[in-house]
Fold:
Amino acid sequence: MIGDQAKGGIYNIDDSYPCEREPLLIESAYDSSRFKDILSLWMSLRTEQSLPTKSDFSPHAFNRNALPYLILIDVERDPIRFRYRLTGTMAESIQNINLTGYYVHDQNPKKLRELLQSDLEELVRSKTPQHVRLSFTNIAGYPRRLQILRLPLSKNSQDQPNQVDHILVVVEFESSAA
Structure:
């Protein structure tokens, strides 16, 4: 299981520490320079009949400074599971592990795993972006906060253009919680 290491990181927190999710208005994501370009691109490509595709989000389509903070998750069905396809270098360094190839259900602690699973399942159902704040305390006892923007993507615009096949995640780390 991921998170069984002794060192800190967002997936290495003890179950006795708080781990909370705060929903944020999607409009407030435009206040972040990291989120703004990516969300604007997603909104410009979204139609009633189709989601933007993974190929719409080439590294040339938005600010390259966001690349280290990106995570791409594949959606698998029957049963629904979420596999990390790609993680940016900043996401890796903060989490102390390259998550590529791992599943969300591999995460520890249990509370974080359950929050992630629930959020991702809701995103697949709703097909709408999510903007949340995740607050947690790492294993060393230090409080942390981060904002997360999650965007549903389809595999392509031909076969099932409104099915969520991938989730693009953008992470922005905030100053420590008070």
Notes: The helical segments are 33-45, 89-95, 110-126. The radius of gyration is 16 Å.
